## 1
Amino acid sequence: MDSKVSSLLFIAILCLLSSTSTAFNITKILAQYPEFASFNDLLAQSGLAQEINGRETITVLALDNGSIDGLSGRPVDIAKRILSAHVILDYYDQIKLSKLQKASTIVTTLFQASGIADDRQGFLNISKTAEGIKFGSAMKGAPLVASLVKSVYAQPYNISVLQVSEPIEAPGIENMAPPPPPAAVPKKAPAPAPAAKTPPSAPPTDKTPSKAPAPSKVEPSTPTESPTEGPVAADVPAASPLADAPLADETTAEAPAKSASSKMHVGGAVVVVGLLACMVGF
Ligand SMILES: *[C@@H]1O[C@H](CO)[C@@H](O)[C@H](O)[C@H]1NC(C)=O
Ligand SMILES: *[C@@H]1O[C@H](CO)[C@@H](O)[C@H](O)[C@H]1NC(C)=O
Ligand SMILES: *[C@@H]1O[C@H](CO)[C@@H](O)[C@H](O)[C@H]1NC(C)=O
Ligand SMILES: *[C@@H]1O[C@H](CO)[C@@H](O)[C@H](O)[C@H]1NC(C)=O
């Protein structure tokens, strides 16, 4: 009896670990739809697939083979910027879109989280129009270029994949140059300077310090964990969509920790819960 319970517990833990590590795999989801093969390839090449899989609540605006042509010819980093502005940091399926109260809603995208977005380039405008739901960049004056074609995949409320008719390109999105051009580097050469400037109190974290000087907005005291969302929240008045992203991150961190500790202390009931969670996960 005891060994049965403990082996069940073992299975339950394995299941929980494997199912909570990533809620979904966008590459796998899109692989079921050959018409999104090019889009799927670009997500993988640019590393966006990994970023998407690291999120818990997300909506991907997908482009089929026929409408992605203009993007696949671009340099990968440009394509990445544009595509990351097709990934909404919230869950919107067709039902939720049809229930939108306001004529237009501004949502935050993964491009905003990259920290290189300028003005409102990292936001999308979702509007209800006479011809249905339309999407456009939230930049002032940008047109609503893309129409909602159909819902491709939905796993409420973790991931929704919606097909849109056209790429949504924020004005100026390909002109920004976050890394200095190669020619400019040798002129400014003093390599030790940035290191000397760094306050001794600054934690010796990986690469973030080298990025920090570029956007002058970043406060030195900002925790390196969220250099992207922090300053942005202060800049843009649209509060509600921005609040979503950090919240989602917090719950991500909490949930597994809680379940792990309670699992240690309780017995059979947890096994049942674990198995249920496991089955739901599959
Ligand atoms: C999404 O996925 C995570 C991780 O698997 C899970 O904990 C959560 O319950 C899921 N649902 C929502 C609404 O976040
Ligand atoms: C996602 O799915 C693809 C294709 O099935 C696979 O190659 C890849 O390793 C998976 N990624 C993760 C993180 O499981
Ligand atoms: C889409 O294009 C990819 C190559 O980029 C191809 O492998 C795939 O078969 C195409 N799918 C359709 C439905 O045309
Ligand atoms: C969204 O776009 C439409 C059409 O361009 C515009 O009328 C509306 O004001 C925009 N909504 C917001 C909140 O900016």
## 2
Amino acid sequence: MAASGEPGRPWQEEEAAAVVVVGSCMTDLVSLTSRLPKTGETIHGHEFFIGFGGKGANQCVQAARLGAKAAIVCKVGNDSFGNDYIENLKQNHISTEFTYQTRDAATGTASIIVNNEGQNIIVIVAGANLLLNSEDLKKAASVISRAKVMICQLEISPAASLEALTMARRSGVKTLFNPAPAMADLDPQFYTLSSIFCCNESEVQTTHFGSPQSEGLHPCPQLSYMLVFIIVLPLQGAGDSFVGALAFYLAYYPNLSLEEMLKRSNFIAAVSVQATGTQSSYPYKKDLPLALF
Ligand SMILES: *[C@@H]1O[C@H](CO)[C@@H](O)[C@H](O)[C@H]1NC(C)=O
Ligand SMILES: *[C@@H]1O[C@H](CO)[C@@H](O)[C@H](O)[C@H]1NC(C)=O
Ligand SMILES: *[C@@H]1O[C@H](CO)[C@@H](O)[C@H](O)[C@H]1NC(C)=O
């Protein structure tokens, strides 16, 4: 299968998407200030910007920029942030056929205040993301079942993620599950439904496998998953760049060894942390060494 998605060359939606994300979109509202405000205090910041975030969309954007035919199944509000988000997805040549808009909640937002030392306070209102439901997934069944790889995270309702993973596995689609943000009482079905369970250090500590007596990790032998440990600097969006890149390799270079896919994905995430912002830092295929493709 040839990867098309060079910037400026959209793929035709009649073709099956190779990478499908069932996940979140969040609008980041970022204020830069000299210090963090105290309770009840109003302070002046020196810069404000709006960014596109949400783990689902981030991972999808990275896969698309590497050339994957990608689609996202997600829900935003019927508001200006939602409209802008859909435009952003289109600009990244991601199919928005199953990007739903609802009147019942606002587009997910992350309000972020960052001081000069880089310390931050963040409030996430998941909003429309939590309304992605079973009916929405059923409408998207054909795009999920024809994919090579489906990615899920935990910024939509766990029930919706579980249903999407079940649908994918039933159709023989590889599932890449990123248990983020970490959840202590993760439903054990997430382990059996994941072809690859991909988490970072803090996420592994929060889930079952980080029990103090375990030396690192030893996945239960009766479960059919692989566990991938990622240790990246916790910089904005690097983990999502890694997961998106891994989905790209799983979909387009299935014959590479997992080790090689991890090396290449790690390289791409390392490139992303050298630029500013989240999605704005994700590299395109044209900016990367040919040896990665
Ligand atoms: C979104 O809002 C517009 C008007 O602002 C309306 O025409 C449209 O039907 C709404 N769509 C949904 C899905 O609610
Ligand atoms: C793991 O990822 C989460 C975001 O999902 C991040 O907040 C956290 O800092 C990361 N932890 C490490 C050790 O990289
Ligand atoms: C992967 O390997 C199989 C058998 O070794 C081969 O039939 C297939 O064409 C290869 N796929 C790709 C994408 O190279």
